[in-house]
Amino acid sequence: MNYNAPGQLLGYILQFPRALYHLLRCGPGDRVYLEVLGDVTTIEDSGLVITEEDKSSQARNPLTDRSVDLWKTLYNWIQAINNGEYALDNTTFVLFANRAGRAGIANLLGRASVNEAEKAVDTIKSKFSNLSHKHEIWPYFDYVVRKSEPVFTKFIPRFDLQIGSGTGAEEIRTELLKKFVAESQIDFVTKYLAGWHQGLVIQRLSNKQQAMIEWEEFAHEFHRLFEKAQRRELIDFALINPPNTNDVKKHLLERPLFVKQLEGIDADDDVIQDAVLDFIRAKANRDSWIEKELIDEPEAADFEAKLYEFWKNQRMKLGITHKSASHEEIGMLLFLECRSRQETIKDQNPPSATVSGTYHSLANGPVIGWHPDWENSFRNIRETGNGTSN
Predict the structure, then answer these.
(1) Do 13 and 197 touch, CB atoms closer than 8 A?
(2) Residue 222: which residues within 8 A CB-CB, separation 6 or more?
(3) Element (H, E) at 346
(4) How far is it, in rounded angstroms, from Cα 208 to Cα 214?
(5) In degrees, to the nearest 5, what angle opens at C-alpha 277 toward C-alphas 308 and 287?
(6) What is the pLDDT of residues 51-65, one digit of tens each?
């Protein structure tokens, strides 16, 4: 049994999120490759090259000072420069590790500027002065630091160490936020782009083509997906078009049934004012979401059903635990519990007034009530036509 297989598989899989990260950062005319020149390579329209090698570990730092992976990577880069495969002046060499560890040689190289490169080489020589010729990293170290010292010195300022998250997902999330993808849509966008990218790479490899993605084809897919994600987002339209002062005054003057229900549990003027605002905001958002097909009628009904179920359970609980309280006190406790309820629509947290405003809509039905005897008091009002519906 090969116990290294999971770690090796992680190394290959990590290249996909890293390629997606580079696609999110590149621009018109750029191309991102997998397993061409490096694990992930970006060739910009200007001719600049960013070549990246990815080092991963399931539990520990993959870039220790005497890591074969570290020194073999440096060896491969320096050898490619010596062979003319890379031009130092227009290439950035990125070493990505999915886990951090104790600062060492890789960190020293990543920090060193042009003026500090020679000092960094001296530090490395000193640190490895007692390195045995029999050590497994010796041939790589000897070639990089001793035999190719002038090239290695020039290489150091072109070297970039990046330490990321275990899966590479956090770096993608940061780039998506920069592109104004809503927080609630990050997972949706990431999963879609990852599936699209992997599928395209597999298709091209099966057709004996390079695993290469052009920025233009990625941008087309991203913009289409971005619009789709926006359509999924439960935008707070009430912020764009806040409740009209006259509408608020009208509700307070006409005293619709949900207001009378609050009056029935001795709610004060501030509570009623907030209730009217939440009622109007929630209705405006619900109508806009349905109109713009962000949600449909069954999804709105399911949201109301979950709120109703919570109200029913809390009503039974308060009837048992607060037998000595007045009806008005029990009603206010029930209202406060429901108003602070957290509930999702399509796995999203809706705008702040949605839950409270929907409860007021249900109370206006009247589907629910706050007073323990609300059925007799307020359903009768509705049935006799003395209530106001909005």
Answers:
(1) no
(2) 24, 179, 193
(3) none
(4) 17
(5) 65
(6) 999 887 655 667 888
